[in-house]
Amino acid sequence: MNEQAELFSRYLALLGVPRREPGLDALREIVRVHLTRIPFENVSKLHYRKHRGLRSLPDLGLFLDGIERFHFGGTCYSTNYYLYQLLENLGYEIRLCGADMSSPDVHMVSIVSMEGREFLVDVGYAAPFLEPLPRDLATDYVVELGRDRYVLKPRDAAGRSRLEMYRDGALRHGYLAKPAPRRISDFEQVIADSYRDEATFMNALLLARFFPDRSVVIHNLTVVESRGTTSAIRTLSNREELARAIQESFGIPEDLVLDTVKDLGQLRDIWT
Questions:
Q1: DSSP labels for 89-121?
Q2: What is the pLDDT of residues 221-240, one digit of tens each?
């Protein structure tokens, strides 16, 4: 077995799923398990920039090391790209695609073609997309948890899929996923830009972990625990308390978190 094959076998072992023939049920299992076992978080991004000078994606080995040693996950670029690679390795007909937010291609997703249908796979949006999202829609496809509501619209004339995120009934965020296949090198500059001093994830914290019926999200000094249609919100008093809360809910070591966040300036609101 070559090194790359060993890494993908290790990846599957971390997820706790067996290698199976491509199929919709197998895809659903991988997406669900990936989202529940590997969190969205940018602590690792800050940590690797500070201690390794990283300004690009961690390689797959480092990505998996972080999961094993520190209970890391990643932001959209690492989690969505490495899941794309895993699914491609497993034999899925899949393409990596760009998605526009306030600027072009600042998000990436995967589109899987199967059984004459297409599904959007996104484990990197800090959202409860526990299943592949169908793109062949006649009406809106809605995912709700706590105070958040996500609406995937039917494809437009150009084959693009618009995702809207509402919080407490107000539109707060979203993206436009484009169906053209892309290469990871196409995102090289936007990934490098995401490490700049003024970049969003260099000035804020966001961690999200999802379960079949609930979620825990830490955004700066706020902890939001959601179940069904209700959310409980509590405010932390300082960064020491924040580090403890992250260890309790995500398993990332408290001392590592504190070392990472102590140098951050005023924490920025991700959703603005």
A1: HTT-EEEEEEEESSSTTSEEEEEEEETTEEEEE
A2: 999 999 999 999 999 999 99
